[in-house]
Amino acid sequence: MSLTTTTLSDGEMLAQFRNPVTKEKAYTNIIRKYQEKLYWHIRRMVVDHDDANDVLQNVLIRVWNGLENFREDSQLYTWLYRVATNECLTFLEQQKKRTSVSLSDVESGLSNRIKADSHFDANKLEWKLQLAIQQLPEKQRVVFSLRYYDEMPYEEMSRVLETSEGALKASYHHAVKKVEDYMLNH
Amino acid sequence: MTTRDNILHELNELKSSLASLNPGNVYSVPAGYFDGLADQVLSRIKSLETADPKEELLILSEMLGHLPKQMPYAVPAGYFEGLAERALESVQKSNDYQTANEELASLSPLLSGLKKEMPYEVPAGYFEGITKDITEKSKPETKVVSLGSRSWFRYAAAAVVTGVIILGSFMIFNNEKIDPASDSHAWVKKSIKKVSTDKLEEFIELVEDEKSVASNSTVKQEEIKELIKDIPDSEIQNFLNETDILDGSDKDDLLLN
């Protein structure tokens, strides 16, 4: 499902974005380049497509408003992931408040959503993996997702989550063990 | 004597109840925990030393390392195709689409290119002195002493107001009305004073066939009287009725008559 993406580098697209004449063109190019990565990162967190779409729209609007001030002291995609992660966590927090349930209930709610998916198959490992991931605490889920699916270096992840590399490595290692245990025992 | 005995002896000397407790461990340990601990720690150290995420995962969990990573979730058909355009539309509809400068640039590049400096000059030292001026003006006002606290002044003020009312009434009601039918000349003489000089000039030009008023000169009241002395009172009366001065609109003139 990949579309024709631009061959421009992130730096070139950023320069175009800062030019009022080419701002919109640059914006659409940036979205096309990173839309699927951002979408799946969000979807893994919130499970439901409609929720993922809402969060992604919010992310893209924040990108429009905030990209002007992006200082380029990190990679563009690091910054995009940071915005997306914060939006996901905010969304999950709001869900928790809206339904007045504890976080663990939110997580079990997400597990129920996975099971409610029309394509869900409990016998398939990829579905079991999703259920296993939902057992993890929110931030650990993010760490696992970024490292396991996006293979993000710890240095970049540290900037995304504003956490030390050592803490992230420890968190990921624990997350892997938990996920493996779940899959072996369910 | 063992270390444990020494500790027990010490506790007894302190007469502590801890001496009677069984120093057993209440916590349980998962079965086989210690058997795999060394290998576990070693694999973790190896995973920390590698920068490659795939290698790291294989070291930590061979099962997960070999699992395919495709997501099982479905995405609506065509979702990504128009996403960028939809996002741009959302942004354009939002209030943060353009800054003031960007908006001006799109509306009028000419105005956008102009400098925003004001061409006006400000007197030297104006802003330095303004604070001082404001400070002085905002000084507490001098205390106002109420005059009403003195009773004799109140009575005097009431007397003055009463006098003014009486005098005014006297002047108004003492001003006898002149009946234009019985004493037309006196009525005209009194009424003519209320008419403006320009109106009188117009009237005289209209009525007089032979005599004419100099258009560029200012006509004084005395000259007007001289000019209208030959005009019949009835004509003047009709003129005054037309100019509508009898409604008493010019009250100042009435009082000063």
Would you count the extended β strands of chain A for me? 0
CATH superfamily descriptor of the largest domain in chain A = RNA polymerase sigma factor, region 2, helix turn helix motif
Could you state the order of secondary-structure elements of chain A as H and E? Answer: HHHHHHHHH
Q: Could you name the ranges of chain B where pLDDT drops below 50 across 5 or more consecutive residues? A: 209-218, 245-257
- Could you spell the SSE succession of chain B in H and E letters? HHHHHHHHHHHHHH
CATH topology of the largest domain in chain A: Rna Polymerase Sigma Factor, Chain: A
Shape of chain B: elongated
Q: How would a crystallographer describe the biggest sheet of chain B?
A: none
Strand content of chain A: under 5%
Task: Let me know the largest β-sheet of chain A.
Answer: none
Largest interface, by Cβ-Cβ below 8 angstroms: which chains and how many residues each?
Answer: A-B, 49 and 38 residues
> Which stretches of chain A of 5+ consecutive residues score pLDDT under 50?
none
Give a verbal description of the structure.
The complex is a heterodimer of chains A (186) and B (257). Chain A is 74% helix and 0% strand. Chain A starts with 9 loop residues before the first helix and ends with a helix. Chain A has helices at residues 10-17, 23-46, 49-66, 76-99, 103-116, 125-134, 138-148, 154-161, 165-185. Chain B has 257 residues and is mainly alpha-helical. The radius of gyration of chain B is 55 Å and the shape is elongated. Chain A binds chain B through residues 1, 3, 20, 24, 27-29, 31-32, 35-36, 39-40, 43-44, 47, 49, 53, 56-57, 60-61, 64-65, 117-121, 124-127, 129-130, 147-149, 151-153, 169, 173, 176-177, 179-180, 183-184, and chain B through 44, 47-48, 51, 53-54, 56-57, 60-61, 63-64, 67-76, 79-81, 83-88, 90-91, 94, 96, 102, 105-106.
